[in-house]
Amino acid sequence: MRILLTNDDGVRAQGLKVLRNIAAKLSDDVWVVAPDTEQSAASRGVSLHDPIRIRKHESQVFSVTGTPTDSVIIALKEILKDNPPDLILSGVNRGQNLAEDVTFSGTIAGALQGMQMGIPSIALSLARGFQGATSLPWETAEHHGPGLIRDLIDAGWPKNVVLSVNFPDTAPEAVKGMQITRQGHRDFQMSGIDKRQHPRGGDYFWLTYGARKSNPPHGTDLRAIYDGYISVTPLHTDLTHFDTLSALQERFDR
Fold first, then answer.
1. For 27-75, what is each residue's pLDDT tens digit?
2. pTM to 2 decimal places
């Protein structure tokens, strides 16, 4: 099995090293094509207005001067064009991709681009800031990742779906299990700004993004992570809200 790895934290990120260790337990044919610099919250950005350059770091490890989506496109259309991968793994992201996060996430975007180009794809993220850990327990993703991915491959999923895996920020032995979940929704606004004064005059702003807990129902990705479970959420790109579609069609279609 040929596996392609990508991420949004960049080719030098600790999470990518962890993902390489996970993939090595699944296959001896593993390739990396990832952004040269951090692209967190890049979503499905595509570099249409700038050229992309490829850098080879070692055998089967490349970076590109672009986004996670760019990385997958370059991998499939250039680096691996004659022998495409059987599976794409994106991550392991430094921080959760839950609820509304999935629309920001470059990690999710890498998997979505792989799915769009016909390759089964899984996004993997490690939560932080919920269980009181002082450092990210990367060993949790590395310990549970290989077996979980094998189980998901055995189960299979539709061609128009990606799987978003979130590991809780607990020690490996403290993980309570795995839950198949739906995308949750937070009951507060996560985004904010930190306004500061420039020493030479004028204001500048840092955008902020919180990680405090909401109060989600059971069955959601949020609740699973809060309760110490691995969350696996099937996602797709159809954002149509069908109840509204039906209501508007009934009112306006002639």
1. 999 999 999 999 988 889 999 999 999 999 999 999 999 999 999 999 9
2. 0.93
Domain range for 129 is 2-185+214-252
- Nearest 10 degrees: CA dihedral of 159, 222, 92, 89? -10
Report the number of distinct structural domains present in the chain: 1
Q: What is the CATH number of the domain that holds 69?
A: 3.40.1210.10
Paired tokens of 203:
């204001």
Strand runs (DSSP E) across 36-86, as ranges?
54-58, 61-64
Question: Rounded CA gap, 133 and 130, in Å?
Answer: 8
- Side chain identity, residue 108: I
Look at residue 66 and tell me if it is in a domain: yes
**pLDDT tens per residue, range 173-205:** 999 999 999 999 876 566 788 889 999 999 998
First to last CA, the chain: 52
